[in-house]
Design goal:
Uridine Diphospho-n-acetylenolpyruvylglucosamine Reductase, domain 3; alpha+beta; seven-stranded antiparallel sheet; Alpha-Beta Plaits; 16 strands; 3 domains; five-stranded antiparallel sheet
């Protein structure tokens, strides 16, 4: 049995392998069931789309911080992969905003995991075990999400740099500055070109070869302004241009950032990765990925969440014959994931392992840890009926 949400996953978790699987399609379980304003908790079904949830909460003065670029992904899928997104640097990932899950086990038993209590030291935390398990332990049928008050003020800055190295220096300076940005997104000129073509308008800066897009938010306008001034002061020495975006420019610029994948997809097939390294190694990893095209003959684009070390590497298919593509892809991934491992990183930050990263996950993970993961799987799914063949 495979749980299917919106079908936006990029690691192969939602696809059948044998052809005999039963697909449980949750797209009609898309109802927002209750907003509890006293505990600031929103109860939803797993098929609710992220964009619809954000629109609903913000129209009522509340805020759901996780912000994956795919606004048409489902909340059930976000929970299954512990999705992160642009604002993870300040607010964290999906895991931090799940109060309670209702899960149906393969046995037919129904579990309520977590609670509306703020604190718990009451036994094992099974809720967090299920978050990020990619549908291999149980089927989620209801989710209670923690909301925050909607920040009253927000401001975005676009900062251009001559090189990726300068941009990553700027990101590290921002993290140390105390400005507390909600998002720090990095993308290169070669990457944002695709989004510009797709949406039909240019980025607010045409200088430099790499960019950081910062988001600041809060409930006090003066504090947000002081954070902005602090941020500008920190990055100005390494930047070639700093653009303070007005409301219209801000909206258009974030649309460009979110449209990168749509833009690339309009012109070429690709495979997207989501490797993660410690934040101080982010620039080193991107610089390394830029050496791979010459060695392997595969075009590579990079962008990512500079504030939390999460790189999205795009391997461009470029019309290669299938057998050539598979050979080049395998050799490139071997080098890339070895570098990620050497830097103390992990193969997936927010998309999950699925089938696409399984080989490298097993190489990079302590065999003892994998053995205990398999034992946990055996406890909840002894006959291996739930999303078999995924993760390990």
């Amino acid at each position: 049995m495979i749980a299917w949400g919106a079908g936006t996953g990029v690691s192969g978790s939602q696809f059948p392998l044998s052809g005999n699987e039963l697909i449980l399609d949750f797209h009609l379980m898309n109802h927002i069931l209750e907003l509890d304003e006293e505990t600031m908790t929103l109860t939803v079904e797993p098929g609710v789309l992220l964009g619809d949830l954000q629109e609903y909460t913000e129209s009522r003065g509340y805020f759901y911080p996780p912000d994956p670029a795919s606004k048409h992904s489902s909340i059930g899928g976000n929970v299954a992969t512990n999705a992160g997104g642009n604002r993870a640097v300040k607010y964290g990932t999906t895991r931090e905003y799940v109060r309670e899950l209702t899960v149906v086990l393969v046995s037919g038993e129904v579990l309520t995991l977590g609670s509306l209590n703020v604190k718990s030291s009451s036994g094992y935390d099974l809720k967090d075990l299920f978050i990020g398990s990619e549908g291999t332990l149980g089927i989620t049928t209801q989710i209670k999400l923690k909301l925050l008050p909607l920040p009253a003020f927000r401001k975005s800055l676009l900062v251009a740099f001559d090189t990726v190295d300068d941009a990553t220096k700027g990101a590290n300076l921002a993290l140390k500055s105390g400005a507390d940005p909600a998002a720090i997104e990095l993308f290169e000129r070669t990457t944002i070109d695709y989004a510009e073509k797709y949406l039909g308008y240019p980025l607010a800066s045409q200088k430099g070869k790499a960019y950081l897009l910062f988001l600041l938010d809060g409930n006090d306008a003066q504090i947000v302004e002081s954070q902005e001034a602090l941020l500008i002061d920190q990055v100005k020495e390494v930047a070639v241009e700093i653009v303070e975006l007005d409301k219209e420019e801000e909206k258009k610029t974030w649309k460009l950032r979110d449209a990168i994948l749509f833009g690339v997809h309009a012109y070429s097939e690709y495979e997207m990765l989501d490797e993660v390294v410690p934040v101080n190694k982010f620039g080193e990893l991107i610089e390394y990925t830029n050496t791979l095209p010459e060695k392997h003959g595969v075009e590579v684009l990079s962008f990512g969440h500079a504030g939390d070390g999460n790189v999205h590497t795009l391997l461009m298919h470029s019309g290669m014959a299938p057998e050539v593509w598979q050979e080049k892809r395998a050799a490139l991934l071997e080098d890339l994931y070895q570098k990620v491992s050497d830097l103390g990183g992990l193969p997936s930050a927010e998309h999950g392992i699925g089938t696409q990263k399984q080989e490298h996950f097993l190489k990079m993970t302590d065999p003892v840890k994998v053995a205990y993961m398999r034992k946990i799987k055996q406890v909840f799914d002894p006959d291996n009926k739930l999303n078999p063949g995924k993760i390990f």
